[in-house]
Each structure stands twice: as C-alpha cells, then as structure tokens.
Amino acid sequence: MASRIESTLAGGIRRGSRAFGPAALLTLAALLLAAAPLAAQAKTQLPPPVPGAPRVIEQRITVHSPALVGNLEGESPNRTVLVFLPPGYYRHPHRRYPVLYALHGFFIGAEQWTHEIHVPETIANAYARGARPMIVVLPDSKTVYGGSMYSASPTAGNFERFIAHDLVRYMDTHYRTIPNRLSRGLVGHSMGGYGALRIGMQHPGVFSSLYVMSPCCLAPMTGQRPGFGPKHPPSLAKLLQGVTSPAEAVRKTPWFLHPLLALAAAWSPDPDKPPLYLDLPFQNGKPRPRIMAEWAANSPLAMLDQYIANLRRYRAIALDAGDHDPLRFDTMRVHRILDSYHIANTLEIYAGTHTSHVAYRFQNHVLPFFSRHLCYTAHCRPRRAVVRPVG
Fold first, then answer.
1. What are the structural domain ranges in the chain?
2. Which residue, among 146, 113, 123, 139, has the nearest Cα to 54 in the 3D structure?
3. Alpha-carbon distance 110 to 69, whole Å?
4. Fewest CB within 10 A of the end CB: N or C in the chain?
5. CA atoms within 13 A on the CB side of 67
6. Domain spanning 1-378: which CATH class is it, in words?
7. What is the spatial distance between Cα 102 and Cα 116, in angstroms, rounded to a whole number?
8. For residue range 180-230, what is the model confidence (pLDDT) as tens digits?
9. Cα–Cα nearest to 268, from 199, 108, 260
C-alpha cells in the first residue's frame, strides 16, 4: 500500500495542475499519509549491532507545557517525553552534555518513533562507531487527528513553543545539559522534518544545528487528484455534521481525511466554531481563498526568504531524503534556496523510500552530524558567519 500511495503521489507531482482546489489540498494531506501508510507503524531496517556498543540509559518522563494549557481541542499539556542518557551519565556527576531534540512524524508518537529509528540500539551503535555522547530527547506531539504539525494554534495548542521553550527549559533545569544554543540540535523526520525546519527558522536563539529528514508539507502541492483514497472522496463537511467533539470527528471520518483535520486545526483555527474550532480550506467543493492563504503562510518554502538572517546563525544545516520518496522534490528546493543565499548546507538523496532507511540514517548520519557540530564545553563561541553577496 505504501509504495502504491507514493507512486501515485509522485506521478501527481510530476504532472502538476493548474488548480489549487480540494484535490490539491488532499494531495497535500497525502504527503502526510505517504509518511505513515494506513496509520500503522512503518517497518524500517534495523542496523546490525556494533561490537562494544555501550549501554544507553532510557527514561520516560512527563513534561508539563504551559504553552499547551487551555487549547480548544483538549490536547493534554502533560506530554510524554523519552530521554536517552549517554553511558556514564551517573558515573560522572559533574559532566554536562549537549542535547539533541528529535521530532517524530505524523500518525505516530514518541513511542512509535523509537521503533522506527530503533533507539536506543542505534544510539549505542553510533557511540561505538565514534560519535560523541549526548542527551537525545524524543517528545510526543501526537494529537487527536494524528499530528500537531509543530505549529502554534489556539485549537491544537502551541506545540512550537512546547518544543522550543517549555521542553528546553525542562531539560536544562532537570538534567545536566550545557544550557547554550551552541549545544542544542534539532532533527525531525517527515512531519518532524517540517517541524525541525519551521522551528529552526524561527528560533535560532535556541538551537545551533539542524538536520531535516524527508520533510513533509513544505509547500502547497498540486495534483489532478488525491494520491490516496477513493477517486471521489466523501464530503468532509457532510461527514462532520452533528459531531460533538474532535474524538467523534475521528470516529465518523475515514482515516485518509484525518490529515486534513490536523492541518486545519494547526493552520486555520477558528475559536468561534465549536466543537472542532477550525476552518476547512474548501466549502461545497470550492476553495476558500482566505483559508488557503492561511495554509500557504505556514509553508516553509513560502517563509524561507523571510528567515535567511536567522538561518545564517546556524553552525550547520543538513537535509536528506530517499530517492524513492516523493518528498525529495521540495527538500531539494530548500537546498537550492539556501544555496542561492550562500548558506552552508548539505543535501543527500540516498537510495531508499520515505521510511526504509531512517534508522540507518539516524545512526550513521544524524548522530555523527551533531557529534561534529554541537558544542561540548561551556565556553564555545559562535562561529563568525561569512556573508557573501547574492547574485
């Protein structure tokens, strides 16, 4: 099923379309579904064990987020967070460590994310292969519809601030971190890749290195028809008639429409429209320009030029995607834009699908990347940015 969805979607991207209507918006939602086929746990390849891999300490904690208090959707402000401490954390009580925050994709939470990237095994393997120890943090940002989009919404909650402020503050006050942006990294895959880029662009004072893995939803996509589900999907508005809560909306709608509800909750909230408190981007089969503009305003490719000065502050930026992943096209666009502004970044299109090699990538590329670029002392200084003229 996953390969069929990705193939259909990729074909739609290649063909393009002159209209940005309901089918195109469903195609945007399909980018999320290609990342989490059938809302099930994606199967990823487990790297073989590395001899001498040390024991990594795993902890499950709950972090209260003031940024999520009072959200209209009823999402809990008390979030599960999985923390992976490096070997020797308790043997060396005066040693401090840099922190890597790793963001999961759509339809899964932090627990499922551990299975996709096979932690703590891949973390231990990376250490055995020479990566320097760090604290790795996996926060849970799943919502009733499947994902928060790591956005700031009165409906779903301000998950952007949860990650960039509340969670960072909690880690810095409860663990032996190096409380400096130069010692904080941010990585994410799929919806998490979107979140890493979105949050990274807007919070360069919090993080210093970014790794964006197969990011979804970078730009509104066009297509002749959705890359998933039936040719003529049922009217979402009709299906939602009479619902009394977001949970009931999930029960009354087919799985392939849940991403639309998640995107609407994140990007077009409406506090005056109970019980879902959101605006859909089309009505009676016709697009709603104001709502579509709100969605477009949340697309990183639309925002990127506004945050060039922020992105120049990063010590390192990396992007990757599989050569059979339809999300690689917009990932390459981000790379080209950064290059056009002479912002140092790397892009790798590797052999694989959206999820097949994500554990290998996390072990052999992501962790070594942050091992090289994060600061491991309390006295690091920012690297002076080299600004070259554009054009």
1. 1-378
2. 123
3. 20
4. C
5. 22
6. alpha beta
7. 12
8. 999 999 999 999 999 999 999 999 999 999 999 999 999 864 433 333 344
9. 260
